[in-house]
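Ticket #4471: structure output looks truncated?

Reporter: J.K.
Steps to reproduce: submitted the chain below (182 residues) through the standard prediction queue, then opened the result file.
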Amino acid sequence: MRIITTKQLKEIPRRIIYSKASNETTQYNMADTKTGKLVGRMYGNMEREFSGSTYYPTIDYYDSFFIHLLDIKEKRQGHGTAFINLAKNISKQNGGDGRIHLKASNCFDVKHPAQIFYRKLGFNSQYTEQLKMIDKAIKHNKKLDSKKLCDIPMYLPTNPKPVHYEPNILERILDLFKKKQK
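Returned output as attached by the reporter:
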């Protein structure tokens, strides 16, 4: 077991990540330092991809951190983002320039599709129709029908632009009317 840290600690962090390597992949576990409970885990490893890849289509060959599984017990606490930042740092340390790729699936949690989480962090995909549907759900803060989503290969560009929408003036006016009607 190896504890991963990058800075000298001034105070005890909210969570700690520790790893356990096997022959093919590494398991990263995250524990809450106050409760000692496991709050999430990630399985991943560095991989070399070649031209024709579904992840980074414009690059002939590259190294990238592949996330096999990201399992978070408590959603919306920043744990998933912490794992993505860890994966990005591991990728940078191993010549991957911060590249991360994965297959986003909602089979583990149909109420919180992973595709939306990854897209909000700036992940991209060649599945443009799925991305349009995901972006629309993010823009309108709507839930996606998990039956309409498929597993899609996604990758984090080296300079990701998180997807965040600010409503235009017409949308703001419509929202005001909706609030008054309630």
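Triage note (M.O.): checked the attachment and the full token line is present. The chain is about 25% helix and 25% strand.
Status: closed, working as intended.
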